[in-house]
Amino acid sequence: MVAERDGRVVGLARLSAYSDRCVYAGVGEHGVYVARGARGLGLARRLLDALADAAEAAGYYKLTSRIFADNDASRAVHRAAGFDEVGVQRRHGQLDGRWKDCVLVERLLGPAVDAQPAPRRAGARVGRMDDAAKELAGLNEAAYRKVNEAIEAGARPTSGERRLAVRCECGSVGCNALLEVSVAEYEAVRASPRRFLLLEGHESPEVERVVERHERYVVVEKHDEAATVAEETDPRR
Length: 237
Prior knowledge:
The protein is of the alpha+beta class.
């Protein structure tokens, strides 16, 4: 599929077989690309939605792909188009001589959607987190913190008592909780790159501890390797 603007192709979405094994016959591997000058117009989202509709009509029950972990824009548009982030492939490729981690994304279609179990509460942690789950959560937390930084920046100049609606920074896929805090409260947390704002109950003791409890939110502090990741991905670094 292609997107055109003024008679020129400015975007495309492709679909290919995930595997030649019959057991995966309903799984398609996709890609979406938009020209630099046409970004920010919603074309990627429209291409993804159209591709999903066409894939389902053709008998596919899942679309899957991988995205560079630091490609915040592509990850955001995939989440908006109904894709879930389900894992991390560490040092999966090289670009300009540098190792790149990839995030695995997928969207269920047709009968696979109907077969899903009842969804868990957004932000809920189930069982122990393995290394891949910890890394994915860390990447999500970094992305949500960038979103919150943009929200706060949009409120300036302002007094420290102005209220902000910021994203819960738990990093759980599917968590869309909003937290109401003042600029002063937000800045107090951001004074340390290891600290994050969470909805109570969304914390993960394996990688963080609660250091403050408030009526509307809790503040957690990362420890061990999670603290290092938080410092390395701090947008104010």
